[in-house]
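User: Hello, can you help with two protein structures?

Assistant: Certainly.
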Amino acid sequence: MNITGICLSCFQNTGGLNPCPHCGADAAHIQVSPQHLTPGTVLNQNYLIGKALGQGGFGITYIGWDLNAWRIVAVKEYYPSGLVTRERGLFVAPIDDDAKAKLKKGVNLFFKEALILGNFSSHPNIVNVLHFFRQNNTAYIVMEYINGKSLKDYLQARGGSISFTEAMQILCPIMLALDDLHHTGLLHRDISPDNIYLTVDGHAKLLDFGAARFSIGEETQNAASIIKPGYAPLEQYPGSGTEQGSWTDVYAMGATFYRALTGNLPTAAPDRAMGREMQSPRELGVNIPEGADKAIMHALSMKPEDRYVSIRSFEEDIEHAAADLKKSFDFSPPQVQMAPQYNAQGWMVPGAQMSPQVFMPNYSVGMQSQIPQQVSFQKPVLPSYPPMQYIPAHGMPDPQMMTSQASEPGFFEWTFRHFKKKLRKALRKMRKRGGKL
């Protein structure tokens, strides 16, 4: 296949330019890890592989191009680090006989996970699985390419933390999606802001199931773990001897909430086990309901038996805390005072009709989210107020109302254009009548 002029980092047409005018990648100096597939490789006779987007302990994710559907995709390759090597830039080979058995079992589990995730292809908060297949002595999952940014990057762009309501709107749909996955026996085991993506159309999506394993018998116990300090509970660390389950993802989700609200990484579980204390969000000065603070710290309990058993219970307590927060707001009708009318000279007209002037009660601007509500999660509804109106007197708007609206973009521009239009119409009418209006 001729891929001349196509950037293998973003799959846009470069027009013969280098570096790529779209993403800035330098095609002449592509650095490829020996563990990665070579950009330009075609898998399953259908997927053109580009640069690697990321690598974890269990797999490598590449940007790819679907040659049939003619769209960008993400291709996840099962590649357990420390157990395999890459041969001839293509085949995955175990390093010894013991690794060969583990690779075979891992590929089967990876394929089984793809089958389960395929059943959630229409879920708005789980990355959409498009195809999966075996090749090169391993397995691949083809997923939708997420156009957006990770929650980690979003938090950084917002100064490190976000409001409680916004955190709810992003994370509660993820919790409900995770609960659906748990009912299939699948654990994620790598929940963190890195693996939650916010799409350009306002959805929060859970992705990167490289550490996912089925909580069936010893399969969870024997599987290697990806450990992210601060997000991983103590049972994920080697030698803990504690069974992993839905409560493992509960801890990671609690840690994600903690990070989003406080801007701080939670204290690592081993440090907490050694006696290092971790302050709650409210103790750090974060303005959240007391019920939410307790729920997050309950999810972050060191012992599994002290945590929520299900992610659904955690999510429900967060919602209840939000309901209490909603009740604390003053939703009484807006106070209406009457503003006087003025004549053309700017004097108040005695007895003229008064125009309503609305004074809105105070509420936190931070409660207004930039991420739309998704699926079944019900966010607190802020009061809706009618737009400010005025009644003109002698063609002059209410000066007080003009002052209150002066900050609105385009207000004076619109007024000036409207005035000119009326003036032109009057002049045309005057000419037709021989100078008479």
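That covers the first. Now for the second protein you mentioned:
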Amino acid sequence: MSSVKISRKDQLEKLAAKILLKTGKKITQQELLALCVQYSDENLDEFILQVTKENRKWDAEEIKQLEMEFIEDFGEGTETLSSDVDKILYGDEKK
């Protein structure tokens, strides 16, 4: 058996405690890590998404594409809608 250093051991202990509270079953850290590895293996695609989410770098083209997908076009005459709303809420600064 080999040993593994864990930088967030307190989280592992808290997770084991939560499992104990919810199930009434005490689980060792070794069993918990084995189950985490097994779960990650069985749900690999979801796990990879979680791993890459933190490291994802978006380039300008991808951001523009997402903006086009998710920003709604309210039609002609609404190009200045944001600044018009700001003027109503905060007043015209050019006074």
